[in-house]
Structures are given as C-alpha cells and as structure tokens.
Amino acid sequence: MAYHETKEGPVTQVRLRHSIELPAYRKVEYHRQHPAEGPSMVLLSGGSGARALSETLIQYTHRSVHVLPTFDDGGSSRELRQKLGMPPPGDLRNRLMALSDMSMRGNPAVSRLFRTRLPAEGTAEALRQELDSFLDERHPQMKRIEPRYRRIILKHLERFVGQMPGDFDLRGGNLGNFVIAGAFLAVGDLESVIFEFSALAAVRGEVYPVCCGGDYHLLGELDDGSTWVGQARLTGQPHAPIRRLAIVEQGEEGWVEVHPALNPHVERALRSTSLVAYTMGSFYTSLVSNLIVGDLGRVIRETRRPKVFVANLLRDEETPGMTVSGMLTELHRYLCASDPSPGGMADYVHYVLVGTHGPSDAGGYVPVDLEAIAEMGVEPIVLPVEAQPMGQGMHEPGVVASVLLSLC
Fold first, then answer.
1. DSSP per-residue string spanning 84-132
2. Whole-prediction pTM
3. What kind and span of H or E run contains 269?
4. Please, which residues have CB within 8 angstroms of residue 15's CB and are 6 or more apart in sequence?
5. How far is CA 348 from the centre of its chain?
6. What is the pLDDT of residues 76-94, one digit of tens each?
7. β-strands 307-310, 276-278: how paired?
8. Cα-based angle 144, 96, 76 (whole degrees, multiple of 5)
9. Which end of the chain is more exposed for a tag (fewer CB within 10 A), N or C?
10. Dmax of the chain from CA atoms?
11. Residue 27 CB contacts under 8 Å (≥ 6 apart), including other chains
C-alpha cells in the first residue's frame, strides 16, 4: 500500500480491473485543459469540509454535482428557519460560492459580499443600521459589484429587509443568506433560487439539496441513552458517541421521525454520473445525514460506477474513538437503511482514500486500519493527502481531486 514519488507527484498502486497507479496525472492534465468537457461526478457532503476541494474541481470539470443536507439550525440559518419558514441556505450558499468562476468579471466582489457577516455583538438598532447600509449602492462593497449583478442583489436584499420580522436576531448574520432569503420570499422555491444564483455567479457545477420541503432537523441517539436534537448542537458540543442518527420534524406531541423523499434531481444525477464520492466533512451531520434520505441507498446501489469514500484525517466531536473501518461500517449501515433491498459493502463503497499516518491515533488522527478495511472488500488508496506544512487535518485538494478524476 506504500506510495512513491514520480515527477508529476505521489502515486500508489490500486487494483481496478487490472493494477494501475493513481492518480493518473496525464488524465488529470487532460481534464485541466478541457474543464467544460470534464467528467460528471456526484459529491455527497455538506458544510465547509469540501469547500477547498470544490474550488479545485472547477479547474478540471464543470460537471460536478454537489448534494447537500438542509438540516442546519445554527446562526442566521436558525433565524431564517424560525422566522421566515424557509430551508437553511448556509451550506448551499457556501458551495455555490466555492463553485463560482472567479475569473469572471464581478464574481470576486459578489463572493466577498456573500461571505460578509454582520457583527456578532451589538444592539438591535446598531445591527439594523449596519444592515441598512448595504441597501445603498454607494456602500464600498456594493460599489465593487458589477451594476447588472448589483441591481439583482439589492432587489433581493431590500425584499428581505422589508419582510424581516422586528424580532429577527441579526447578530453574526450572513449577507449572502439574507440575499438568498429575499429571493426565496419572491418565489417560495429554494431550487429556483439556486438556479438563479448559479447563473448569477457563473457556477461551474450543480448544487442540490438532498431533499425538498419540510422543516427537518437531525436527532442523535447517544450511547449514554440521551437524545439530542439539532445539527448545531451535535456538531459543536462534546457528547457521547452517536448510536443512531435520524431526521425529525416537530409534531403536536414532540419530535417525530420522518423519511423525506429524495430530491428527483439528485436521483437523476446519480443515474448518469461517472463517480460517486462521499467526501470529507463532519461525519454524521454533513455526510450520513444525506444517506438516510428517501431511497438514496437504493439509487447508489443501482449506480454501476466507482464509489469512493474520502475519509476524514482527524477525529471530531462526532467520531470519538472511531477508525476508518468503523466509518465504513457506519456508512454501510445507513445506506442499507435507505435501501429497501440492502446490499453488501461492495454495492456502496469500492475505494477509500486515506492518509499515510497509519494506525496510530496520536495527534487526534483517525486510525487507518488497513487490514480491517481490506477484509470489508474495500480497496484502500493510501496517499499523502494532508495539506502541508500548516494544514493538519486538512486535505490537500489537488491530491483528492486528482484521485477522483482518475477514477472517472
């Protein structure tokens, strides 16, 4: 499983139909020269974990499809859900901006605005004044935006401000989320909003929520017998290991487990893709939360294309004590749960991309237990995937992208 260096970069031996070396750098270079004709691939995982990978992929393909959960209940997403009744836009906005073509005139200024946040502290009056200042096209950030984009953005922002409830908590609020909220208030359809902003920001790929409609939340049953509700809570606070993850909505007598239907756009993308990738991010709330929707497991099982899991390098609050093989076991468990005819591991995962740190958990790393992985019938791809020199726990996006492109 050892890798070795070539003049193009590190490679490792992998068994497909025959033994080959990955990444296939000549293939990757070809895609770099022809990104508009690049391969299709479906990436499953939300949050910011795969942001750098998404920004890198658009240099090689404009046909990546990003499937994201819509269960966020923290920050301004929480306020938008509670006060306006809309799905949380944060992860979707983040991924749209990651896929935006920054070489297009005006896009960098739009991206900066969409990442701007109001102060985390301050009186309601001061925060409202700060927000209102963005309604003036002479605002320094607005002035930098192309007039054709600025008019659209201001129209949506004005609509949001005009319909924003008086008790809306603006602390730390994201301007991009507010603009998207204004567009949602106009059409009442998140997918139409995504389509509009994809065109506005020259997005080189597609972004879809894994399911549509409903005021859905995540529920975690923990090993200590307690039950926690809320993505923000499960991600941000120490807790016992998660025994089971479920999707719930508020009923008359409390939280009720539900099974939302899979977004039809996601199913179509999986039927036509060249690769399925379970990418890095918060393991349960960003990745597994996708896998328990509708018939996603069934559709992935029926997709006869390479399927690869990009394992996290470091443990987090969601994965204490877990190894890479343990993560694979959990992926299989939840994929089977969303498949009426559950299959074996090989029906859902063919490869796992791991770092070179080995079986130790020193420094908070997820142990790479190669023997256990191989016994599951999953092929390990062992490469130096960690960003250097200051990127402990962060994947080097060029290496990950090269592997994914090589498997297409």
1. H-----HHHHHHHHHTB-TTSTTHHHHHHHHT-B--SS--HHHHHHHHH
2. 0.93
3. helix 264-272
4. 379
5. 19
6. 888 999 999 899 999 999 9
7. parallel
8. 85
9. N
10. 66
11. 405, 406
Query: Across the strands, what pairs with 245?
Result: 220
Place of tokens 């006060």: 83
| Upper half-sphere CA count for residue 399 (Cβ side, 13 Å) | 22
DSSP for 46-66 reads -SSTTHHHHHHHTTT-S-EEE
CA dihedral 238, 241, 243, 246 (to 10 degrees): 30
Residues 270-296, mean pLDDT to the nearest whole number: 96
Report phi then psi at 248, rounded to 5. -135, 160
Q: Is the pLDDT of residue 10 over 90?
A: no
- Give buried/exposed letters for 290-300 (b at 16+ CB in 10 A, else e): bbbbbbbbbbb
| Residue 286, token pair as written in the block | 């960003």
